[in-house]
Amino acid sequence: MVKAKGNGKVRLGIVGVSGIGVERLKNALATPEAEVTALADVNAEALIGALAQAPDAQGFDDASKLFKAKRCDAVLLNVPHFLHGPFALQALEAGLHVLAEKPMAIRVTECDAMLAAANAAGLKLSVHHQHRHRAWSRARILREGGLGRLLRATFIRNSRRTNAYYRTAAWRGKWKTEGGGVLINQSIHDIDEFLQYTGLPCEVRASLHNLVHDVEVEDGCVASLSYPDGAVGTFVTNLSSLSPTDVCEFECERGILQVSKPSRVGRLPGRGVYGFFDDNTEMWGKPPKTEWEDLPEVEPFPPGSLVRDFCLAIIEDRAPFVDGQGARDAVAFFNALVVSHFLEKPARLPLDHAEVDDVFDDLAKGRWKLDRRFTAQAEAELAGAR
């Protein structure tokens, strides 16, 4: 196992120093337990600018050269989605701990290979899911708050990105390089949080769509979920709304947890849901009064917290706050939604690896695309028909 060098600091290599890599370099330079010793980027201008901030680091124009240079103990990977899996495997094979940007990879098969490599080498593998801590504290309410068994989970988040967003980088909006749209990029954070409350479902039925974007990937998803213990769920997200919506709630036998803004927990008296539906003698009945308790807002992680936690995990030889297994589950959930839509059937978890690879291979080859449904031409044709 690679540990920190003699001065107690972790030698960090940063792969990708443009885009989000600019922030990760700042995070690394501000981490007391780290020193930046290597930087890599195919963009020469970005690399020169980064080296000016970390003059003691060695620069590389190729990530594989950095992995082999023995200049670092661990790497931060800030690269397009399709490179997360291959680069992580190269780094792990070179004996380096890995902190990857989200998502962990495009396919759950890649994630499993990454986990196997990290476990075999005794290395730390983490993913930058900086929102998970918001769910981490509140999910305990479901487990320990006396609300009883989960009956129904509901997640709805409507947001937006313009077509200009997809023009900011050539790899965006393509199945081969981004791996999807809203689900793997923006909503992978939401999925990671959601799973802290519910765990993975055993079956999903999903419908993906592209309403207003000039790309081949989804800008929205509507899915129904089934859980092993009988609970059900709904997961809805999109990037095509001018009216932001944020609903995240968990209905249980004896209460409800709402983690939108504001967040609160409601507790039902007596037998709760069962008492109302089983014992009520009226057709409609009057629900019992719910006792509501407001929950304090969870402050966001300070910038760089996961970078520092990653370094401390190496020094202290413990698991990082966001471990590879949890990040893998978020990718499995995303893969299940995609498989369900394109194969037009429920996707059962754990997923069939061969089926996942077949679907994503076909998507990368252009067999399937999600063409934009609503265009200026369609609008004009509709107006003419009127």
What does this structure look like?
The protein is α/β, with parallel strands linked by helices and 386 residues long. The chain has two domains: 10-130 and 303-320, Rossmann fold, CATH 3.40.50; 132-300 and 322-386, Dihydrodipicolinate Reductase, domain 2 (2-Layer Sandwich). The protein has helices spanning 20-29, 44-53, 63-68, 81-93, 108-121, 132-144, 163-166, 187-198, 272-279, 305-316, 324-343, 353-364, 376-385; strands at 10-15, 34-40, 58-60, 74-77, 97-101, 125-128, 150-160, 203-209, 220-226, 232-238, 240-252, 255-258, 264-267, 291-294, 347-348. The strands form two sheets. Strands 14-13-12-11-7-10-9-8-15 form a nine-stranded mixed β-sheet. Strand 12 and strand 13 form a beta hairpin. Helix 4 runs parallel beside helix 5 (108-121) and helix 8 crosses helix 11. The mean pLDDT is 94.
